[in-house]
Amino acid sequence: MRDIVKELKQKKERARISGGLKRQEAQHAKGKLTARERIEVLADKDSFVEYDMFVEHRSTDFGMEKNKIPGDGVVTGNCKINGRPVLIYSQDFTAYGGSLSEAHAEKICKILDQAMKLGIPVVGLNDSGGARIQEGVASLGGYAEVFQRNVLASGFIPQISVIMGPSAGGAVYSPAITDFILMVRDSSYMFVTGPDVVKTVTHETVTAEELGGATTHTKKSGVADLAFDDDITVLEQTRRLLDFLPLSNKEKPPFRITKDPINRKSVNLDTLIPENANNPYNMKELITTIVDEDDFFELQPDYAQNIIIGFATVAGYSVGIVANQPMVLAGCLDIDSSRKAARFVRFCDCFNIPIITCVDVPGFLPGTAQEYNGIIKHGAKLLYAYAEATVPKITLITRKAYGGAYDVMASKHLRGDINYAWPSAEIAVMGAKGAVEIIFRGSTDKEIEKQTQEYQDKFANPFVAASRGYLDDIITPHNTREKISLALELLKSKKLTNPKKKHGNIPL
Ligand code: HXC
Q1: Prediction pTM value
Q2: What sign does the dihedral 318-505-124-145 (CA atoms) show?
Q3: Which of 99, 123, 256, 490 could in theory staple to 129 by disulfide, Cβ–Cβ 3.0 to 4.6 A?
Q4: Which residue out of 15, 138, 304, 405 is catalytically annotated?
Q5: Which helix or strand (DSSP H or E) is residue 181 part of?
Q6: Can you tell me the mean pLDDT for 61-84?
Q7: How far apart are CA 340 and CA 221, in angstroms?
């Protein structure tokens, strides 16, 4: 018996060494942590319970039967993150470059299957050379098994992908299906085909970093939600992100006790809107003022900056915030901002997270670039997402709410539960000048000017919408936090279901 215990200890030690000290040093030299070191940062202290340490690949080609590393390039198990259970996998680049074999895929699938049974989130730490080249189609099959589970888990449990090294080829599609992608600057990249293939096919010369680095995906493509400078920061921020989320769609998001009084008056909001309606202001000031303790976890801050999305708590309740940003493109909706916000609204709706929408939108961005690239379908995504959402929806119109964009941004007509406006709100079909130029086409400049003023006086206020009940109240800016807090409290018991169907057909 004593020998078996000794053997067990030795086997575990062997598994922990994985690809060996030299390869671990190489990992450190690149500024990266090893798979197990990453888990230590991500998980609560001593909470990680490892599975499948002794799993080995079954390949016999290319001499692989003599080259076995226990664990087979991925460390899996369960842990606690801020006291709540999470299942994790962490690819181990020191073992076959973290490449995915059949056995490696089975370990990840076991995590996903268990997460579905238990109703708890999955965090995947990705650092992999892709399909295990020696295994060929068995590896491709393994990927597809993972993808299938990612899809079935989507909307049922939160799934977070942290990209901490290479993620190339079809391998990028598992992270793409998950809810959030976080990357590490200068050491992670994601692309469907690498720089060499790009060069051969399109004759473009591009580095891996330019093609699929963190900056590319957080600024240009919008594929990733956030990027951080190093492994430790990205893992700490992953812990923070999880704090806003429920364990599964069967639960409410966690409630966080706050010392920030719900009736805290915010006089800075009374002067937030500039005198001149064409001047911008920073919508983030409104957001950080109304949330608990200024704590706003923004997602995609560098992509489609004309819309802001992110998580916060208000009066202790976890909320998703969507807000037009007048400082960028005057806050209008375009293709990228519609897609960005639509996916976020759908995430919140999947996971019972109330949505607060702050509106200052002059309309959809005009132009051939938008029309040719399908603003009609992309704008419809956001409309669809809001209309479909059954979670509590609280809307605040701070200034402009024009045209179709008024409808889209969680209006009363799309089942907004509590719709407020500030006295500075302007709700109309279109801006005064444009409207008058159409109605009074051919009139003199003087007449146009007079009619513009009249249109402005009549519609550039919240009263017409309020008189129809499209707004529940017009509130003073300094009371906004209290009003929203009370609305969240009220809406706790909201119950609303959509007609039963297999699934809708969102305009993709
Ligand atoms: C087996 C692999 C591997 C792979 C890397 N290794 N990728 N082993 N299968 N896919 C091994 C290397 O042999 C090496 O082993 C160790 O991992 C580290 O690799 P290096 O090349 O020394 O590291 P580095 O210079 O940092 O380069 C990393 C890399 C490069 C950029 C990822 O290794 C690389 O280009 N790998 C191949 C990537 C690839 O083409 N994958 C298949 C993509 S197709 P030793 O023993 O020397 O330490 C795909 C399809 C998926 O994934 C489709 C899903 C639907």
Answers
A1: 0.96
A2: positive
A3: 99
A4: 405
A5: strand 180-184
A6: 95
A7: 11
Q: Span 406-420, mean pLDDT?
A: 98
pLDDT per residue over 425-441, tens digit each? 999 988 888 888 888 88
The DSSP secondary-structure symbol of 418 reads E
Specify the 3-state DSSP secondary structure of 79. Answer: strand
CA 118 to the chain's CA centroid: 23
Q: Which amino acid residue places its CA nearest to atom 41 of ligand 1?
A: 130
Helix, strand and coil percent figures for the chain, each rounded to 5: 45, 20, 35
Catalytic residue among 31, 136, 170, 367: 170
Q: What residue's CA is closest to ligand 1, atom 47?
A: 96
Distance CA 66, CA 74 (A): 19
Q: Report how far apart, in Å, the C-alpha atoms of 184 and of each of 131, 181, 188, 213, 235 are.
A: 22, 10, 6, 8, 10
In the annotation, is 170 catalytic? yes
Q: pLDDT at residue 496 above 80?
A: yes
CB atoms within 10 A of CB 438: 10
pLDDT, one tens digit per residue, over 91-122 is: 999 999 999 999 999 999 999 999 999 999 99
Whether 173 and 148 have beta carbons less than 8 Å apart is answered as no
- Lowest-pLDDT choice from 55-59, 222-226, 324-328: 55-59
Q: What is the DSSP letter of 45?
A: T
Residue 1: is its pLDDT beyond 70? no
Domains of the chain with CATH codes? 2-242 (3.90.226.10), 267-425+461-491 (3.90.226.10)
Residue 170: predicted pLDDT: 78
Percent of the chain exceeding pLDDT 90 equals: 90
> What is the secondary structure of 276-345 as a DSSP string?
STTS---HHHHHHHHSGGG--EEESTTSSTTEEEEEEEETTEEEEEEEE-TTTGGG-B-HHHHHHHHHHH
Reported as a single tens digit per residue, the pLDDT across 164-178 is: 999 988 789 999 999
Q: Which of 73, 129, 142, 169 is catalytic?
A: 169
Known catalytic membership, residue 138: no
